Write a sequence for this structure.
């Protein structure tokens, strides 16, 4: 099959990737707005919400892999021309999401205090984090379903529909959370806890919208027209479980990083929550472009065109590197102005200024890992991706972060420098794996 010309390839990437990237940017903006609202309540509230957020990330990570699994299988079926079976992976994904969410919700709700108390000693931080976490775990089933729906819409090259619903969900989140945090619009004043409640409600609203929209237009692809088959469920689990485990260990690693930073100090923990949300402002668009690579690679492999799939991976990496460089420029040009949007505390701003500069400067180097991780998932190499990410995070970064930070007294800046080095190493590893092309022979 003839390769597409460069201009048409860029058009394909932007047409598919911009809606996904827009959705990821909207998620980043939501996180930043949430941090700004909670930041006005003080450093303890900011630290507590940070811990609750990443404890919740650990819980929902176990259903997040469904998004990549559904997207890869839907795109592969679309590429093979199996129109009436395209939504089959979505049916299996929704069933698995429900079955996983029930025990996760029960454990999270009943053990919230013990989990947050394990991560922090400050009683004020623990109280905020516990209540926030309890609200968030009520929406685990909705989060899993939303990831499955996202995989379906991205897989059929209609990411715009996913973006429309996501924007509605985020606007609802901002309005409801603002009302519940500060007691506006006739809602009760719940403080930082209201942020968790507002997010959970918005997730449920988004799930209802995804279901209604897909029920209307996805029936021709087989949505809810047949019961999931055990053979197809096993195929979905082969793709989703390694990715979910990778996401879980990544989330656990982020939570462990918060625990490490908590050993340095509460102020460092508070500003680290802001820094990670600002880093997500760059990371999530990169992941969004990577998800475009998931669809493009999987679709090409469904057409038995491995060379085209290989080229898509590098083309998306180039676009992502340029995009992340432009988005990261304000972080290293004016970090004090950006941090001032989230806290008036001059000491917190001083703590975060150089880590934010490092984030903005290093993100372009991270583009290779962000994109090729998703491209390899599109090819079905989920176990390999899990092994690389878990190994580099748990065997390299976290032990060194604990040694350099709390043990040797390097502080937050040293930990942030180390994190950038670890992400660059990941990029080199994934670039090497992509060049070897072993992924092209995987059958999903």
């Amino acid at each position: 099959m003839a390769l597409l010309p460069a201009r048409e390839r860029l058009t394909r990437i932007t047409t598919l990737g911009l809606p996904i990237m827009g959705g990821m940017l909207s998620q980043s903006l939501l996180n930043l707005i949430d941090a700004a609202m909670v930041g006005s309540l003080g450093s303890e509230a900011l630290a507590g919400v940070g811990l609750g957020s990443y404890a919740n990330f650990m819980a929902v990570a176990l259903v997040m892999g469904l998004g990549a699994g559904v997207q890869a299988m839907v795109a592969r079926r679309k590429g093979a021309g199996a129109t009436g079976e395209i939504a089959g992976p979505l049916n299996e994904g929704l069933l698995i999401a429900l079955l996983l969410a029930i025990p996760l919700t029960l454990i999270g709700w009943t053990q919230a205090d013990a989990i947050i108390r394990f991560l922090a000693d400050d009683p004020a931080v623990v109280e905020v984090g516990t209540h926030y976490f309890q609200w968030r775990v009520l929406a685990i089933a909705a989060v899993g379903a939303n990831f499955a729906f996202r995989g379906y819409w991205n897989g059929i090259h209609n990411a715009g529909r996913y973006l429309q619903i996501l924007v509605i969900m985020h606007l609802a989140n901002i309005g409801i959370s603002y009302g519940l945090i500060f007691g506006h619009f006739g809602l009760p004043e719940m403080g930082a806890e209201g942020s968790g409640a507002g997010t959970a409600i918005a997730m449920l609203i988004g799930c209802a919208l995804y279901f209604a929209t897909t029920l209307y237009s996805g029936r021709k692809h087989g949505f809810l027209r047949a019961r999931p088959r055990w053979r197809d469920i096993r195929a979905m689990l082969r793709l989703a479980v390694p990715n979910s485990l990778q996401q879980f260990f990544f989330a656990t690693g982020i939570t462990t990083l918060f625990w490490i930073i908590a050993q340095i100090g509460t102020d460092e923990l508070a500003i680290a929550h802001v820094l990670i949300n600002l880093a997500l402002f760059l990371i999530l668009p990169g992941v969004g472009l990577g998800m475009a690579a998931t669809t493009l690679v999987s679709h090409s492999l469904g057409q038995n065109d491995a060379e085209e799939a290989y080229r898509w991976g590098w083309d998306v990496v180039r676009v992502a590197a340029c995009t992340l460089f432009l988005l990261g420029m304000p972080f290293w040009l004016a970090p004090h102005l950006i941090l001032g949007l989230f806290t008036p505390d001059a000491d917190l701003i001083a703590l975060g200024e150089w880590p934010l500069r490092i984030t903005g400067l290093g993100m372009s180097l991270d583009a290779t890992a962000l994109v090729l991780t998703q491209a390899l998932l599109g090819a079905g190499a989920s176990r390999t991706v899990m092994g690389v990410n878990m190994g580099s995070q748990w065997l390299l970064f976290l032990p060194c972060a604990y040694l350099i930070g709390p043990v040797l007294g390097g502080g937050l800046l040293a930990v942030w420098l180390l994190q950038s080095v670890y992400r660059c190493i990941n990029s080199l590893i994934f670039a090497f794996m992509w060049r070897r092309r072993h992924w092209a022979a995987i059958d999903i």
About this structure: The radius of gyration is 21 Å. DSSP finds 15 helices and no strands in the chain. The mean pLDDT is 84.
